[in-house]
Amino acid sequence: MTFAAVTMLRSAGSYHSICSFSTAGPSKIAARYIPRKRLCSPERPKRPFSTLSKKQVNDLVPSLDQLGIQSGDNVTVAVSGGVDSATTLRILCELPINLDVIFMRNWDPILSETNFSSSPTSFSLSYTGTKANSLTSTCQWEKDWNDVQAITNSIGISKEKVKLVDLSKEYWSRVFEPSINVWENGGTPNPDVDCNREIKFGALMEYLPKSPRHFLATGHYGRVDHTPSLPIKATLLRAKDQSKDQTYYLSQMNEYQLGRTILPLGGMTKTTVRQLANYWNLPNANKEESMGVCFIGERGKFGDFISQYTSPPSSQGHLISPSGEVLGHHKGLWYYTIGQRAKIPNQLQPMFVAKKGVGENKQDILVVPGHDHPLLQCSGVITNKFHWIHGSYPSDLIDQANDKINIQVRHRMKPVPARVRKAENGGGVFIEFKEPLSGVSPGQVAAIWYDDWCLGSGVIRDTICLG
Q: Angle CA(253)–CA(259)–CA(265) in degrees, nearest 5?
């Protein structure tokens, strides 16, 4: 069956949607995945989070059928200490399934931020830090682990069902070092995409039992549509809350990983999740949302942190104009991002970074006057080998329905329409934007959707600019 045939079944109503009504029989919790009406009238002040009624909560909790699981299934919930994963766990406690909890430690300050050069088995790179005590991890995994234990204790999950798994070595080798290499060479990597592919749905899923009825649940905002009656067993769909949708970060998962994944928050808004957390009196219900890459955290200057892991440049890097004039110097390519303003004295106009890694030694940065300069306007990109979630280039979708294809090159951006075709070699794709995008950099991830259906993503190799 082709992608187009699957799409026709979806539009005809025979393609199962997790937003459909449950068909699993009478149940007080078998309800729609998201209510049709707002919980609070827009004319009235919003009620406190704790005033949800039991009926409203039951209406919000997804059914087994909506999640694509069965009574008695085993589900491991990855809980980070944040409100999203905690609420995910509490939601699943309402269902007749077997639950256990796992917490991942991905960044180990002892291994990653201390120089053990005398040990032949130590990591080759280390962060020396600028404070007296550089062993204090800004990621605060110990605090998060304590939060996880407090959450599970408040819910009533026994201690033997709550485990910590140390994946810091896997994170270092599969995510961190490759990202450093991209930064060092002038690109802009996305460690969060790599982490989901390699760690959360890679190393962690490998750690779980291989039973087909054992699933991994996370607090991501996205939807997985499990459809056993079709050749495509699981598809990744955008979350209902478009402002929180995280399918960009999940775009390099494969169909096997999706088939073992459930995302209970996919039909809810962030506000609804907070309401549920307060209704259930979760200890972290009002915990602030964590932002940014875990290993960087609140360290201050990003460039200074990355510098601790990079090799010194072979030659001095310069800030140069389009005519080749040297306007200044820089300490490393990773200190700058495409589209960023470059603070250069004695310039008639503000200067912006247009390209990195240029010049004879590939250490120079091209800067241009004005944020709307043609060299900042990207009309298209070429990717490295593209990762298609379902294994191959879906020509019957992409070649015949370009009006439904949309692209993102960053998480927090509005999806944009584009034309997609195969690149000449290397398994990549050429993406031509219908309107130019500003600030696109090699190393970033370009993800493709057909309507709300995520088809996959690839790392940008080259950009084509108007200039």
A: 80
Q: Are residues 101 and 204 in contact, defined by beta-carbon separation less than 8 angstroms?
A: no
Residues annotated as catalytic are 195, 294
The domains of the chain, with CATH numbers, are 54-110+140-280 (3.40.50.620), 314-371 (2.30.30.280), 375-465 (2.40.30.10)
**DSSP assignment of 230-245, as one string?**
SSS-EEEE--S-TTT-
- Contact assessment for residue 55 and residue 189, using Cβ atoms and an 8 Å cutoff: no
Quickly tell me which residue has 């080798």 as its tokens: 173
Kindly report the backbone phi and psi dihedral angles of residue 438, in degrees, each rounded to the nearest multiple of 5, phi listed first.
-100, 145
- Over residues 105-131, the pLDDT tens digits come to 987 666 555 543 333 333 333 333 333
Q: Which of 119-123, 134-138, 140-144 has the lowest mean pLDDT?
A: 119-123
How do residues 164-203 score in pLDDT, each as one tens digit? 999 999 999 999 999 999 999 899 999 999 999 999 999 9
> Which residues 6+ apart lie within 8 Å of 135 measured at CB?
109, 110, 113, 114
| Rg from Cα positions in the chain | 24
Strand intervals (E) in 392-452: 405-408, 416-422, 429-438, 445-450
- Answer yes or no: are the C-beta atoms of 270 and 226 closer than 8 Å: no
DSSP calls for 60-118: HSBPHHHHT--TT-EEEEE--SSHHHHHHHHHHTTSSSEEEEEEEE---HHHHSS--TT
Residue 251 CA to residue 50 CA, distance in Å, equals 35
Cβ–Cβ < 8 Å for 401, 408: no
Token code pair at residue 73 = 């299934």
Asked whether 333 and 356 are in contact (CB, 8 A), the reply is yes
State the pLDDT confidence band at 219, using cuts at 50, 70 and 90: very high
Place of tokens 């592919």: 197
Give the C-alpha distances (Å, rounded to integers) separating 9 from 16, 17, 23, 235.
9, 11, 18, 13
User: In angstroms, rounded to a whole number, what is the distance separating the alpha carbons of residues 332 and 365?
Assistant: 10
Average pLDDT in the 349-376 region? 93
Query: Could you give phi then psi for residue 450, rounded to 5 degrees?
Result: -105, 105
CA distance 410 to 90: 31
Whole-angstrom distance, CA of residue 456 vs CA of residue 253: 8
